[in-house]
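Board notes (copied after class):
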Amino acid sequence: MLRLLSSYGNMFSSRATSLSSAYRLASEFGTFGGNFLPRSPAAGSYLLSTVNPYPRRSVFSLWGGSKATEWSRAVSEAEKIVGYSTSFLSLRCLLSDELSNVAMQMRKLVGTGHPLMKTARRLFYDDPHVLQTRGLLVLLISKAAGPTPNNSESTDGMTSGIYQSQRTLAEIAEMLHTACLIHKGLVNIKTEPLNGDALKDMEFGNKMAILSGDFLLANVSSGLATLNNTHVVEIISSALGDLMKAEFTRLRDDECNSIQPRDGATVEDWELQTFYSSGSLMAKSCCAALILADHPKRLQDAAFEFGKQIGYAHRLHQEIQQLVTDNDNGNDLTAASLPAILYTQEHHCINRQCELLAQEPISSKQVLNILKSDKEVLEKAKKMCSDYGQSAFSALDLFPKSEAKNALKKIVKAVTTF
């Protein structure tokens, strides 16, 4: 299996390399502490102009929110504990020669409205602590568990008490997440009234998204092969499978849009959807990190539980943030969000608003207008977010006292405080 994965990664890298042109964006970037940083202002400004042609504006990070300062402080402290900043950890692949030509071609998508440009802005520009939170948590849980005397891996390559294989796993988790974000940016051309240049733009954008996402997945395969652990390969592969399952649940329609079934949805439905879409990768990556260090099963299970519970808390925190701030975009609110499900349960689907939530399609702004005036649902959602956080705290009880454990607790607190 390992040999097959490695062969697949090498094959895809060879094919992608043939696409490279004289424009080699990656050559303008140097490395420091495992991260790619611009060697010249021109390189940095070119990259930002490619993925962000618009003025910077305040946005919600993937893990931040109303307590952005507290969140940023928690992440900054955690990065110091694990040895170096993880904010651009997976750019080793994103800025490689194989994708340099893709970056050049992406300029053609500016102004077309293709979702790939929005994804690129989120990955490169929005917030310095947006990208690598999953990898950071994997590194923190690895350091919190510590080394083991019976581990076959040499301690020579350890950095800040973390095995090299665990750092590789953190990068793999980030690449996998990034690849799925890019693939989700595909436009279903059959359902869009497009023609002429607009149709060509969307088709071109889809090709770029497929190529970029597949390249990262190929690197995930190659990275997994280097770990030489079939159990870890199986676990991370199942996490990828869960990401695919997330698009085929009761809370998705035939076009993969978020919906609330007409016969109603439950908290369990939301938890399953959230686990498949984000919690599984986090939980299984944390568990796999401890497998690589040969930690006992009970500690592996605790790491899995921590990843799952913080995944729930994180997702619910995103949804609640739209209800407790002045931001009216409602980007994280859908008819399948937990506050919307709680609203439907509270009102027993007897009013006009419940009927709207069961209709498809319904915009995020409509969901926000329905929910923002219901304080009871908001408080219930906050209580559930706090409960998920407490479960994450409990999962850490088996870990010895350390700076890494305290950093994990601060991150949990940041995503459960409003």
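Comment from the instructor: Strands lie at 29-32, 35-38. Confidence is low (pLDDT under 50) at residues 1-66, 126-131.
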